Amino acid sequence: MERPSLYVVATPIGNLADITLRALEVLKRVDAIAAEDTRVTVRLLRHYGVSAPLIALHEHNERRAAQKILQLLAQGKSVALVSDAGTPAISDPGAVAVARVREAGYPVVPVPGANAAMAALAAAGSTAPHFLFYGFLPQAAAARRRELAALKASPYLLVFYEAPHRVIASVADMAAAFGAGRTVTIARELTKLFESIHTCNLGTAAAWLAADANRTKGEFVLLVEGAPEAAATDAGAAHGALEILLRELPLKQAVKLAAQIGGGRRNELYQLALEMKKAVIRD
Ligand code: SAM
Questions:
Q1: Which CATH number fits domain 6-114: 3.30.830.10, 3.40.630.30, 3.30.420.40, 3.40.1010.10?
Q2: In ligand 1, which atom is closest to the CA atom of 88?
């Protein structure tokens, strides 16, 4: 630890053993630790025999706390930044302080480790090649539904964080917005005593959660299958283009261009083109 730096340190999301050797080493060596809730962090530090002065850094004082961090760095001291659980700045405070420190020209050093979204993804068994980390949906039902409507066509696996008292309403809204057939993985209390990972269709998820009061206790990550390829593309645009192009071009060429314009599977557009041709002949 030669240059004064800000270390962004991931802490466990439940199981206290989920902390890296490097994280412990850094926490032991820094001059101060900026923590989202100092009472939560004290428990972790006590467990590992770490004692360093703590600075409160939460969503309501992040700019002021960033100033304090900058003062310490200016004095040649190093600081660690932690949140209550997992990786700071991921649906947690920290990004403002990190930006300030980087702007001021000090090194910001990530010390990676636990993260609830990654833990859920690792254990869900989804073969989706891409995912979109959304984090928390809006709390108000109307805003949440608007947001879900905007996400409907996303082809990527969607990763949400959700609070226990909203999880049933959220999966019900997801079923309404995305359709009942999509798969959802409900990852609860990861790394903790009552860890559970359940996969079902969105259409049955709310009832499954409601069937046992224990199923809505704790912390949740929801992984929702992305839109099927055809729905994710602008099918309307592809179909419209196909209709026009078929009037002027050979079928194969029309299909190729329509797929380029609107997206979608070529073999599906090909079938559609054949039907359109037949319909024209019949007319
Ligand atoms: N920074 C954290 C991270 O790296 O994952 C996330 C903090 S965010 C304020 C807290 C949310 O993360 C919870 O409401 C829940 O959605 C999710 N979460 C955190 N720990 C979890 C766990 N052990 N099991 C399932 N979800 C968890």
A1: 3.40.1010.10
A2: 1
Query: Measured from the CB, is residue 82 less than 6 Å from ligand 1?
Result: no
Q: Give Cβ neighbours of residue 73 (< 8 Å, ≥ 6 apart).
A: 4, 5, 6, 79, 101, 104, 106
* Superfamily per CATH, domain 117-133+159-222: Tetrapyrrole methylase, C-terminal domain (3.30.950.10)
| Residue 124, C-beta contacts closer than 8 angstroms, at least 6 positions apart | 185, 187, 197, 199, 223
Asked if 165 contacts 218 with a C-beta cutoff of 8 angstroms, the reply is: no
pTM, whole model, 2 decimals?
A: 0.83
What are the Cα distances from residue 271, in Å, to 54, 192, 247?
66, 51, 16
Q: Which of 219, 222, 224 to mutate to test the pocket of ligand 1 (most atoms within 8 A of CB)?
A: 219
Residue with the two structure tokens 């820094």: 30
pLDDT digits (tens, 9 = 90+) for 14-49: 999 999 999 999 999 999 999 999 999 999 999 999
Q: Ligand 1 centroid vs 13 CA: distance in angstroms?
A: 7
Q: What is the position in ligand 1's atom list of the atom closest to the CA of 117?
A: 5
- Rounded Cα gap, residues 176 and 165, in angstroms: 19
